[in-house]
Amino acid sequence: MLKSSTASHKQNNFVKSMLDLHEFLWGFSIVSLVIYLFRGLRKAIAMASLSLNSPLSSPSLHPLSWVGQLLLEQGAAGSLVSLDSEIRQENHNIILSEEATQTLHDDKNSQQNFHDKNPQKNPCVLAGKVVQENIVIMSEGSVSASASSGKGAIRLRKRPARLVVPENCANLGLKSEIERNNKLERKEFEVEGRDFILASKKGRREVMEDGYGVVVDILGDPKQAFFAVIDGHGGRAAADYVAENLGRNIVKELGNDGEKNLQLEDAIRKGYQITDKEFLRKGVNSGACTASVLLKNGELHVANAGDCRVVLSRKGIANSLTMDHRLSREDERLRIENAGGFVHNCNGVWRVQGTLAVSRSIGDLHLKQWIISEPEIRSLPLTSDCEFLIMASDGLWDKVNEQEAVDVVSRDNNSLESCKKLIEISSSRGNMDDITVMVINLQKFVTNCP
To answer: Helices H, strands E: what count in the chain?
Structure first.
């Protein structure tokens, strides 16, 4: 009976020991989970601080916990050791991330010091060099950083290091181009010339694509002048080139008139063709519609390629001197189709190859087999009843008709305010395109006027 009681007591002690062991294992699991969550939270805080480019003090590498060592000795902590090893690896990754960020921070400081000592250098180029040497984005989403201290390649996991961008990055390559065309990049500008007035307003595009060209005192004669209004598309490269070269090329052909026995209209036509040919050599896919006026020997010679328009006021009556080159004209549409081109109506607008809404222009290299630069030319004598010309891009004529424009200019006595008022009218009616309006006083070019 005593032996049975002793055996029962030992069995109870064994069961109690097993229960204590289970309670210990459960308690250990809970404690380990809390530690894991705490370290994960600390890692998240550290990575958030790194993303703000604020280096943290490097945490020490924690050894394996004493509980883990105990269970390792007993052969019962395989999974816990794996968990503790992962925590140590993640802590190691944090240290490497901080080292790489500190390297980038030091490189940025050294680059800034170099720029302070060498202000003539381009900070963007220097910064680009620093970033390129220290960061390589990998295809699998990880980042490799090559520290300048010579520690070798460091592989960071899960989160790429931040790209260090210099604060002073104003000297971009585009800036010089904008500064060179600063006058045309303003939203609005006005010009009061000797024989003309002009106002222009930028539309919704980022870059102003309208332009103008003026040549006065041709061949030393104050009664000879050239004026042009230009509406670019696909950028302003073509508009800039036409503004600078079209008048010059026409005047050059006029100077060769006697030598080559050219008619005046032939000189204008050749000037357009030369300007187009020389611009196409640049290989730029940009184009420009142009309307021009040549005043010479008491005559008015109007030329246009595209949808810029010229309107004459004769005793207050509007007379359109140009016809828009658009695909709504049947002759233009047939010309392009006969040349093998495709003309498509997109939302009520006819377009060549489904893209360009005009049928003639200077430039447009990718459509040149259909979009010609040959202008239509009209000539008429200047008489005392010829008051003024209105030359404008389609940004005006799409919203304002010819007679309305002549009435506005007549009421304001050909002043600059009349050009600005026409722009305001077009804008108030919903125009979002660039608008350029030029008014030319013809009375100064009539030869029989004193």
So the answer is: 13, 17
- Rounded CA-CA distance 447/348 in Å is 46
336: phi then psi, degrees, rounded to nearest 5: -70, -40
Tell whether the model's pLDDT for residue 165 goes beyond 50. Answer: no
Using CA atoms, how far apart are residues 84 and 92, in angstroms rounded to an integer?
Answer: 12
Dist. CA 293–CA 289, nearest whole Å:
14
Residue 108 sits at the vertex; the CA angle it makes with 104 and 114, to the nearest 5 degrees, is: 145
pLDDT of residue 257: 57
Q: What is the pLDDT of residue 412?
A: 86
* CB neighbour class for 231 (10 Å; exposed up to 12, middle 13-18, buried from 19): buried
What does the alpha-carbon distance between residue 366 and residue 353 come to, in Å, rounded to a whole number?
Answer: 10
Strand ranges, E, within 157-286: 188-192, 196-201, 210-218, 221-233
Upper half-sphere CA count for residue 192 (Cβ side, 13 Å): 6
Rg of the chain taking only CA atoms, in angstroms: 39
Check residue 262 and report its DSSP letter: -
Contact 310, 322 (CB under 8 A): yes
Q: Which residues contact 246 (CB under 8 A, 6 or more apart)?
A: 213, 228, 271, 272, 275, 290, 292, 362
Q: Which two tokens stand for residue 306?
A: 């595209």
Residue 303 has pLDDT above 70, yes or no: yes
CA 174 to chain centre: 10
- pLDDT score of 82 more than 60: no
Give the tens place of pLDDT for each residue, 388-410.
999 999 999 999 999 999 999 99
DSSP 3-state of 50: helix
Name residue, tokens 């209209």: 265
| pLDDT tens profile 308-352 | 999 999 999 999 999 999 999 999 999 999 999 989 888 888 899
Q: At a CB cut-off of 8 Å and minimum separation 6, what does 148 contact?
A: 103, 106, 107, 133, 134
- Per DSSP, the residues of 107-157 read HHHHHHHHHHH-TTS-HHHHHHHHHHHHEEE-TTS-EEEE-TTS--EEEE-
Question: How far apart (Å, rounded) are the C-alpha atoms in residues 137 and 147?
Answer: 15
Helix/strand/coil percent split, the chain, to 5: 45, 25, 30
